[in-house]
Every structure is written in structure tokens, then in C-alpha cells.
Amino acid sequence: MKDIVFARTSGWIPKVIREDGELKLMLGAGADANHEPRTFRFSIEEAHLAVIREDLARHLMLWSAVLPLCDAAGTRGPLDENAAVALLDPILLSPPADVDALFQRIRWDRGRLIAHGADIDLLERGQVCAAMRAATETSNGKRAQKYHADRRRAERGVVLGPLDAAVLMYTGQYLHGATIPGRMPDAVDPALLPQVMRVIATAEQACAAMRISRDPRRGKRATDKRDWDQMAATVDAAVRRAHPELVDDAVRTVSFLMCSEAADRSRSTPMEDDEEAVGDHADSGRSPRKTVLSFTDDKGVEKKWSADDPRTATAEFWEFVGDRSASDNEVFTIEDEEMGEGIQLHFYADSIARITTVHEGEGGGSDPEYRVEYSLVDGIGGYRNLVSAFVRGGCAALEQHGSWISDAAEFERARRRRSPE
């Protein structure tokens, strides 16, 4: 039978219970194999209960010292009760100087005390008892997160100035650098917000004419890494020139914001519009636009397109690629059966083949004769230009797009020279 003898209003602070007539401290910590919170108990005495009731600071310090023991128990191991009991007298009943000395020797959860109002400067100097004079029963988890974020930066030798911190607050990346950035002006000190907005304006102006295209080779929502890197480099350079006082963390968060927003705009743009910029620059060639095309992948799946379809051929093809592309499916073909020509895209090799029919197969079972020519491709942008050019003008329109090599062995040597293995 369990009765709660003493509990504070904050539910996570350890409670004192009476179980089968014995006083125990009970706390939730860690998680089991099913990610459910674990509960631990260990025995205490009446003298310990008296201090826990009256002294919030000592209660919190005991909690921070016991938590590492709970972590050591893992998902299923028992609490080292002897070690837990051994902490009671030194923390709850000893003079402050002795308590401070103990905390120099043991593991303890610094963030827990900081979340409950501990003075960080005093904690850093080892004056734990003095630091806890301002302790609060309520917890401020973000205060502890900010402390740990600053510690991680300090370990990398990074010290934030007021504007650096404000920029990171604006993007929401102060606490966690891996967080997708956003725009949170309300998180910034109003006195610093105009300076932050000048930094953001510099970045926006630098990349105003840039875009991040989609890369269907990597899935329907994937974007072009090269476009991302180019935009990030452009923004970085512009921000560093205009605001040389900013540290790298602040500059990177601004470029990350610009790139992630550009990528989101690309993902939300219909494929027809996304193709427009490519199509406008594609050579229409000497042949009429295609009217019927067949798309196939390396798994034998086929999709037909005709000119009366509501979407463009390029949009339908890249949609097909986005749906079907995978690590074991990286060869895609566009074929115009009527004209006897097509292109085959080799995503794994950054190359393309254009295939034209030289002679149709005659009666008696003779096979048709094809001319196959290869070319290297420069990223997804190169593929998009080639696909648009073929759709608009067939193989003839590809002539000015790259150097075409008919000898497969010679082409393989050229490919290896560009991408040495």
C-alpha cells in the first residue's frame, strides 16, 4: 500500500511516499523499452523528510544528484539504492561548503537545477548552494535548453554577440541548429529587431533572382542540392560583406532560412510552372513538337503521353521519374515510336544516350539498326534542359546540347575522367 506523504505542485519533482510503513523517495525518470516513464524508489528517514519539506533548494539538489543513477539503470536495470541512500545525508543534512564539495565529485543533472532557477554563474564557479537561493518550484525548460546550447557553442569556440543571438532567435535556431528555420520576430528583443531585419533584407536581396528547382531523381519532393549550395554560398557571401561582425552560426542560419523557403516554394509549385523556366530556354530544334511519347523505367513500367493530355510532356515525365526513381531504378527512357527516336537517362552515371533509327527492320525477321550516341550531363539542370529540348524538337534539337560520342568505350573513358573512381 502506498500513501503520498509530501509532494510539490510540480509533478516531476520527487515525492515522498509511505509504502508498507516505510518512508521512500519516489521519482519518475528515464524510460523503459516501450518508451514509458520508469519509476524509482529508495528509502529515506524522517530527518530527510523534514528537510525536503522545508528546503526546496536541497530537495532539488537531491533530485539532480539522483537522476544520473536513474539514467545508469537504463531501460530495465534496478536503481543502485545504496548509492542513492548515500547521497541523502551529504546533500540534505550537511553544511553548504560540504554540499558544494560533494557536487565537485559526483555526477549531477546541471540542467535540472538551471530549469528551476539556479544562478548559472554561481553554478559554474561550483557554488551550488548559493546558486539555488533563487530556486523556483516551477520549471523553465527553455532556460536549461539555452544553457546547453551555449555550452555546445562554447565547446566549438563560438561566443555569440547580441545581434548573433537575436538572428538565431529570429530563425528559431538558437536552441537547436538542426531545426527547420522560420521567421519569428516576436522572439527577438524589440530593440534588436531592426538590425535583424537589415540582415534578413541583405540575404533576400542577394538571392532574389535565384531559385531552387526540384530534383525528381531523388523523389517527388526532393530539391536540387546544387541549386541549394549555390544559393547558400551567395547569401553567405553577401551577409558576410554587409555584416562582418556576425559569427558563422548567425550567417549560416540566415542562408539556411533563405534556402529552405526557396525549396518550399519549389515543392508547392505545379510541375508545369516549374518546367516553364527550363522550357523557355530550350531549343525548339528543327522538328515539330512531339505528339505521342512513351516513358519507361528500368523496371519495365510504361506511361504514355499524348499532345491532347492536359499537362505538358516534360511535367508528366518528371512526375513519372519522381514516382518511380529509386536506388535500384535509375534508368529512364523517353521514346517517340512514330519518329523512331528516343533518349535514355542514366542517373547513376550522370549521362544520357540519344537513340535514332537508321534502318527499320525488314521482313524476314531482320532487326532494325539504331545509332546510339552518349553525352555527359551536368546535374539535374542539365537533364531538364535535354528533356525539354527533346520533347520540343527531337534528337535533332539535342545537337547543340553537349558533346555526343558514338563509341561506348570512348565515352566510358570520358566519364571516368570526369568522375574518377
List the helices and strands and how they pair.
Layout: E1 2-6, E2 15-19, E3 22-31, E4 37-43, H1 46-54, H2 56-73, H3 81-85, H4 88-93, H5 96-103, H6 110-115, H7 120-124, H8 128-131, H9 141-155, H10 162-171, H11 193-206, H12 225-242, H13 248-267, H14 271-281, E5 292-297, E6 302-306, H15 313-324, E7 331-336, E8 341-346, E9 351-359, E10 369-376, H16 379-393, H17 408-418
Antiparallel strand pairs: 1-2, 2-3, 3-4, 5-6, 5-7, 7-8, 8-9, 9-10
Summary keywords:
421 residues, four-stranded antiparallel beta sheet, 44% helix, 17 helices, alpha+beta, six-stranded antiparallel beta sheet, single chain
Biggest sheet character: 6 strands, antiparallel
Summarize the amount of helix as a percent range.
40-55%
> What is the CA-atom radius of gyration, in angstroms?
33 Å
Order of helices and strands: EEEEHHHHHHHHHHHHHHEEHEEEEHH
Question: Counting H and I runs of at least 4 residues, what is the number of helices?
Answer: 17
Q: What is the 3D shape? A: elongated
Class from helix and strand fractions: alpha+beta
Overall mean pLDDT stands at 91
Widest beta sheet: strand line-up: 6-5-7-8-9-10
Termini separation comes to 70 Å
Low-confidence stretches: 277-287
What is the β-strand count? Answer: 10
Per DSSP, what share of the residues sits in E-state strands of 2 or more residues? 15-25%
